[in-house]
Amino acid sequence: MRVTVVLFTADLRLRDNPVLGAALRAAEHVVPLFVIDSGIARAGFVTPARAAFLADCLADLDEGLRARGGRLVVRAGDVVRETCRVAAETGATEVHLASGASGYAQRREERLRSALTADGRALRVHDAVTTAVAPGVLVPSSGNSGKDHYAVFTPYHRRWSAERLRPVSPAPRRVELPRVRSLPLPGPGDLARGPAPAGLPKGGESEGRRRLAAWLRSGLAGYATAHDDLAADATSRLSPYLRFGCLSPVEVISRARRATQAGAGAEAFVRQLAWRDFHHQVLAAVPEAAHRDYRTRHDRWRTDPDELAAWRAGMTGYPVVDAAMRQLAHEGWMHNRARMLVASFLTKTLYHDWREGAGHFEGLLVDADVADNRLNWQWVAGTGNDTRPHRVLNPLVQARRFDPRGEYVRRWVPELAALPGAAVHTPWRLDGPARAALRYPAPVVDLTEGLARFRRARGLD
After folding, report:
1. Separation between Cα atoms, residue 367 and residue 48, nearest integer Å
2. pLDDT for residue 432 is more than 90
3. What is the pLDDT of residue 45?
């Protein structure tokens, strides 16, 4: 009987998985394979938060496969070597894989194709599995010939919105597995050392689908008006499930668009998913943007270890910034508005290199994805795709607008919990004894001075 291998990467689901579906159509026996990739571990991208979430994802995927007659096959080591080894052991003629946008994913695909071809086997790569619209599908018109990607979101979004998405496919009924050796399913400690954040959500397709259903039922309709409200916590929190492929972005978009009662909420939510695809198509075209400025501003970034440590610890003296950084440490997640705010504070108010911030986020965020994390940091830093690269988000203005009663700050900065209303955002204005009793630091920088320094550095004055 014909055998194929499905190499799972960031598509850890059974429903609407074109990679798995194609493999099942091509052969009677399918090997669902996950390789604990030593290359990713060496790059330092396996962190306690993502390891714990990934372990949940793999356990849930295995449970779903077993309910259909199969199981998840686990190997560890170099992903190309282990995949080829499994293909040889089972006599598989093909390996199926979802495409990826990062330089690492592109190199993995090239290496795997070369190794399989040399062994007389084929690699089948499937697009639009981890994004709704695959990178490279939408390119600027002939009037912009020579462009292989959209550099500005608005025209990309217009094209993206008009694109017809593929139909959503159901989960398979049966998965027939040949005899093949497997390692035990890994636990979090097998993947990374250290404790996961205390508030980390449970991973896996089952949990992702439960959360999606709840979001469509009770959260989506109010998204347009409430998504920037820091205290309301009115976002979907589906990003980890999209990052690991527990949810299909095509299905999420399709279901949101069908929720006609959601109106503007659905439109605003789907726009955020377009942002995700936008950054993936940028990175696929310019992989070096993960490490280098997409558009250089010739910045001469400052180096101040004490400032950086204060920002990381949530001790900058600006309560809304500190609340967001403490939420990140506790949950492995941060509200999107808060992400922009703390990124602007680091790169423009303190004038530190965006790579310092992106690296810190990648150490803690469960949803950290190279395309979304790195290019969003560049967007805020003004070295990426923002058409207003020198904008600065004033943390006090942001706090008054998006946490007007101070509820978000009081939730995450308990030493300020007794301060009433909006006064919680400016504790330095208290008199001496009351200020000292808070045991909360003074601001690391005066906002006016920070803005002036940034403008001088960018040659704006």
Report:
1. 12
2. no
3. 84
Radius of gyration of the chain, Cα coordinates, nearest whole angstrom: 23
Helices (H), 27-135: 38-42, 48-66, 79-90, 103-118
- Predicted TM-score of the model (pTM): 0.96
Task: Label residue 1 by pLDDT band (50, 70, 90).
Answer: confident
Question: Has residue 145 got a pLDDT over 50?
Answer: no
C-alpha 140/C-alpha 159 separation (Å) is 9
Residues contacting 81, CB < 8 A, separation 6+: 115
Geometric angle at alpha carbon 199, from 60 and 325, rounded to 5°:
130
Which amino acid, one-letter code, is at 122? Answer: A
List the 94-98 sheet strands across, edge first.
73-77, 29-37, 3-7, 94-98, 122-126
Rounded mean pLDDT, 277-290:
97
Report which DSSP code applies to 374: I
* 357 contacts: CB under 8 Å, gap ≥ 6: 311, 342, 343, 346, 347, 377
Q: From CA 370, how far away is CA 427, in angstroms rounded?
A: 36
Q: Which residues of 383-397 are buried (b: 16+ CB within 10 A; e: fewer)?
A: bbbbeebeebbbbee
With contact defined as beta carbons under 8 Å apart, do 283 and 276 qualify? no
